[in-house]
């Protein structure tokens, strides 16, 4: 357990448990789904919850869509972000935080993505708004901007960018780092014209790489053989999250037309597969309705095992869908042990009975231990729209998962509030820092939990 300052207040409580009390309780999964965990268990535990920020802004201005990164050089250093332009940094493992506003000559317009490289430098990728007029100007969303901090999140460079292809729009980006040479890769969706209903306007997955610490970006490539529409919906190509293999392999999965697609490069992004592979079906598509949530998605997350453990090199893809009906959203995982040539059948990560919603999932693999962690919103404990946050973890390469409720109290969302499009998670050597959005006392807020697992 991470040590807290004496009398430190968490969620308005005057004291918290400083020793972790874990009770493992076997649960019978009421629905017999294919490849369900063999020995489902749930952890009943107290994990200190830390409020990082809150604001009265409730739609597109309040803090949400958070991202977080732990430094591999010093895991006490943690940096996070939230829309539109918020930066948070901590030097004590996330117990206390400082806040500042990110600025750039290219504008800062949300979709924050945080990454820490092998040297302990941090990167913050986001959408652009050079004119500051957002949707009222043609330069809005014209590139993906990446800013860098070399002092643990205190100060940031003006930024560089990739994907400037005027008049096309750039959105839904993510980053990954190759720890061998510290190169940074980025994937995202390019729209010929965002929200266009014209059949000629298409969307595609793009890639770029930086070999100089984010100073310049090159090796741009279009990855998706099948192009989607521009409606930001099931038939749009979205959700590209890159992952790096042990020998520098680059892996990417994304969602399109009720399927999860996959591509890879073995030469630093110079060449890619001639034909995209299918990881799994995604029945119902990647967009769906969740009561009380303005919009929800089940976009995939790709991650790899870089540890020296028995599952080194395994590729994992995590997503949500409603294959069992609109009142039953589940979290799924597929894996490949042969570089993405073949994939396991989807395994259900949440181990509750039928008829509940689990959504906004994110996956991370500890690069030291190889353990898998999946964070998601969960409604198994409530008959209304009250929502908890759960963390599922696996010590056996995704064969079985333990589910742990990590939020200390539920919250009640409303469709009048924009919760963003994702939560996030960062893990290093047993230190786990999930980050999520909740509605608290009429304000949007972002939170983390102090979790440590060896």
UniProtKB/TrEMBL annotation:
<dbReference type="Pfam" id="PF02012">
    <property type="entry name" value="BNR"/>
</dbReference>
<protein>
    <submittedName>
        <fullName>Glycosyl hydrolase BNR repeat-containing protein</fullName>
    </submittedName>
</protein>
<dbReference type="InterPro" id="IPR015943">
    <property type="entry name" value="WD40/YVTN_repeat-like_dom_sf"/>
</dbReference>
<dbReference type="InterPro" id="IPR002860">
    <property type="entry name" value="BNR_rpt"/>
</dbReference>
<keyword id="KW-0378">Hydrolase</keyword>
<dbReference type="InterPro" id="IPR036278">
    <property type="entry name" value="Sialidase_sf"/>
</dbReference>
<dbReference type="GO" id="GO:0016787">
    <property type="term" value="F:hydrolase activity"/>
</dbReference>
